[in-house]
Design a protein that fits this description.
The protein is α/β, with parallel strands linked by helices. Helix content is 41%, strand content 12%. The protein contains 11 helices and 5 strands, in the order βαβαααββααβααααα. The chain is globular and about 50 Å long.
């Protein structure tokens, strides 16, 4: 039986580097933002490479969910699902999520918004996933572990060891370093978002990021900080 580990993050939250770590395991197959094409087609939002994302992906959420939850005879030991929490729009059913082994990856909203606005001209609270992460935490009864990106980058070895135990697989040092460059599993949006990850060969040491916010960005941070703080208070501390 393939273990399905689903990581729900917002943008600019080391989610792709974390996917690299799991993909570097010989027993794991990763899937990169499987709901993205459906999300863009459903919402009509204009994201970089929108037409290509929709053309390359699956726009029927039922088929996406089926691929993420159905039995997988002969499949890998583990499937790592990299999800963006903002893809969980209100009219997308969420009951299926409880059948997965879930984890929430959070990051300070000021850092998220500041980084997001380097690639996008505008932002609203629903773009950065924190509100949806809190909803998901409540839906799952508060049992889902919460990992803060800053904590993780201070001790990636320790947090990966814990996550491996949570997933029920042995830790391997292969998760800490990987070859630079693209992967076949990368979404077609990689040229717009993955520059730093494509150059990376491991997790960067933690450093405090310079935050620059527009008035619009400051408003989004104010709207999302209470949700972030609720999740931060119950985060996993090693």
């Amino acid at each position: 039986m393939t273990i399905r580990l689903a990581c729900w993050s917002g943008p600019r939250s080391i989610s792709t580097a974390t996917m690299r770590a799991w993909e570097n395991r010989p027993d794991t197959r990763v899937v990169d933002e499987p709901l993205y094409a459906w999300y863009l087609a459903h919402t009509g939002l204009d994201h970089p490479g929108r037409d290509g994302v929709i053309a390359a992906g699956e726009t029927d959420w039922r088929r996406v969910v089926g691929s993420l939850t159905r039995p997988w005879p002969g499949g890998p030991v583990l499937q790592y699902q990299k999800h963006m929490a903002q893809h969980l729009v209100p009219d997308l059913p969420r009951e299926w999520i409880g059948s997965l082994r879930n984890v929430l990856l959070i990051r300070d909203p000021a850092e998220v918004v500041s980084s997001y606005l380097r690639s996008r001209t505008s932002v609203v609270a629903d773009d950065i996933g924190i509100l949806q992460q809190l909803q998901l935490h409540v839906q799952l009864g508060g049992d889902v572990p919460v990992v803060d990106a800053a904590d993780f980058l201070r001790m990636p070895d320790a947090y990966l060891r814990w996550l491996c135990a949570y997933a029920g697989v042995p830790f391997t040092d292969a998760m800490l370093a990987w070859p630079a460059g693209p992967r076949e599993s990368d979404g077609v949006w990689a040229p717009y978002w993955y520059d730093a990850v494509l150059r990376s060969t491991g997790f960067e040491p933690y450093r405090r990021r310079r935050v620059e916010l527009t008035p619009e960005g400051e408003q989004v941070v104010a709207e999302t900080r209470p949700a972030y703080e609720r999740l931060y208070d119950v985060r996993l501390v090693l």
